[in-house]
Amino acid sequence: MSNGGPISFMVQKNSVITGSDLIAQTKPKKSFWGKETPAALVFSLYFTNSVITTDAMDGKVVLGTVNIPPNSPILTADYHTEGWSEAFVLGDAEFNLQQNPKGKRVGSLSVSSAWMNMSVVVEENIESQKCDMIRKRLND
Q: 22, CA 20 to 30 Å: which among 70, 72, 105, 133?
């Protein structure tokens, strides 16, 4: 791969989440009676703390080695029912942090990527203090 590497690409999850900060994650749903039901598909958003050198992947095929710069967004998807996990470095990511201006001011965070050809809601019902922390990290 070239020195710059691709903007968005797949990586092995374990190679990138160590040394990265977890920013948001899909939470279990609560039933009417308050019992939590784990989500079958859990999305997690991380940001790297420093340069990470890892392999860019296409499924299980290694495309080459890339250097991921600090503060890069990484979106992971863990499908617990099927037992698989994927991770993507999203240089083309667009973040949407919506926060309700009234009441508890809870928010939701979604990530979209033209490269992945999809948009996902990472976390909902985010409390205002965490929304402020996410906003600060996104603006860094």
A: 105
Q: Which CA distances in Å does 52 have to 24, 66, 69, 77, 140?
A: 20, 8, 7, 20, 18
Q: Round the CA-based radius of gyration of the chain to a whole number and report it.
A: 16
CA dihedral (35, 119, 7, 130) positive or negative: negative
pLDDT tens digits along 2-25: 445 568 999 999 999 988 999 999
Chain centroid to Cα 93, Å, comes to 10
C-beta of residue 42 within 8 angstroms of C-beta of residue 26: yes
Instruction: Supply 51's token pair.
Output: 């340069």
Which of 43, 27, 125 lies closest to 90 in space, CA to CA? 43
Q: How far apart are CA 140 and CA 133, in angstroms?
A: 11
Contact 27/124 with Cβ under 8 angstroms? yes
Confidence grade of residue 128 (pLDDT, cut at 50, 70, 90): confident
CA 108/CA 123 separation, integer angstroms: 6
